[in-house]
Amino acid sequence: MAEGKAMCNAAPFKFTWRINEFSKRTGKVCSEDFSAGGCKWRLAIYPKGNKVNYLSIYLEVAYPKNLPEKWSTEVKFSLAVVNQINSRSTVRKDTQKQIVFNASGKNWNWGFAFFIPLSKLKNPSEGYLVGDSLMVEAEVLVYNVQQNSLRVYTEEDTEAKVLSRWAELKERVFLWLLQLLQKLPKLPEHLFQGKPLILKQDWHKEKRN
Fold first, then answer.
1. Residue partners of 75: CB distance under 8 A and separation at least 6
2. Quick check: 153 and 144 in contact, CB under 8 A?
3. Residues of 90-126 as b/e, b for ≥16 C-beta within 10 angstroms?
4. pLDDT exceeds 60 at position 67
5. What are residue 111's DSSP bridge partners?
6. Nearest alpha-carbon partner for 129 in 116, 140, 139
7. Which residues pair with 101 in a beta bridge?
C-alpha cells in the first residue's frame, strides 16, 4: 500500500479551540489536552506574537518530561484560524510532510510563528475576531509512536511500514540472542562425567575412519 494513498484514507483527529476574551490574553496561552494516535497533545498560541507581529500557533506534546527519554512519534497536521464571517477566508496552514516529535531536545513542539498578521487579525471587518472570541482548529494525523527502542503502531500506519519494521524488529532480536549466546560461559567438563563431548561432525569423521 503506497504511503500517499494511506494518508488520504486515514482520518485525522479534529480539535476545535475557542479562545474567549482574546484581547486580554498575553504571553503563551495553551489549550486543554486532547488525545490523537494514543498521544496527549495541546495547542499553544501567542496572541501578541512570538517576538513577531504575527499570531503564532504551535502543536505541542503535552507533558514531554513525563514521557520515556527515547519517546518519539511522526505526525502530519494542519492548523487553522477560522473566519467566523466567511469560512472561505479561513487561514489554514499544514506541515506538508511528517514531522518528528520527541520527548527530549527541542522537537516537542512545532508550528507557525508567522501565521496571520496581528493587524489583520484585530481588524473587526476581517471576521477572525468576533465578540473578542477567536476560533482555532487543528487536524492531527499520528503515524506511529516509538517507546524507548520499540514502536507502538497506530491505525494510520501503512501496511508496508508495519511489515518493514516488523522485519527490522525480528532482525534486532536475532542479533541480540546471538550476542547473548556468545557471552555465555562454556560448560564445565565435569558435567559430562569425564566423557568428551563428541559433536555430530566429529562422529561422522570417526565413522569414516
1. 37, 59, 95, 98, 99, 101, 140, 141, 142, 143
2. yes
3. ebebebeebeebbbeeeebebbbeebbebeebeeeeb
4. yes
5. 58
6. 116
7. 73
pTM, entire model: 0.65
Q: Mean of the pLDDT values across residues 125-141?
A: 95
Residue 43 has pLDDT above 60, yes or no: yes
Q: Please give the single-letter amino acid code of residue 102.
A: N
Q: Is the pLDDT of residue 6 over 50?
A: no
The amino acid at 172: R
- Dihedral (CA of 88, 91, 96, 99) sign: negative
Q: Is 73 helix (H, G, I), strand (E, B) or coil?
A: strand
What is the mean predicted confidence (pLDDT) over 115-141?
A: 95
Strand partners, 152: 145
In whole angstroms, give the CA distance from residue 19 to residue 55.
Answer: 13
SS3 45: strand
CATH T-level fold of 3-156: 2.60.210
- All cell numbers assigned to 90: 479561513
- Which cell goes with 175? 542479533
Q: Are 73 and 144 in contact (CB under 8 A)?
A: yes
Residue 26 carries which DSSP code? -
3-state secondary structure of 130: strand
Q: Which residues make Cβ contacts (< 8 Å) with residue 200, sequence separation at least 6?
A: none
Cell of 10: 486515514
Q: Are 107 and 101 in contact (CB under 8 A)?
A: yes
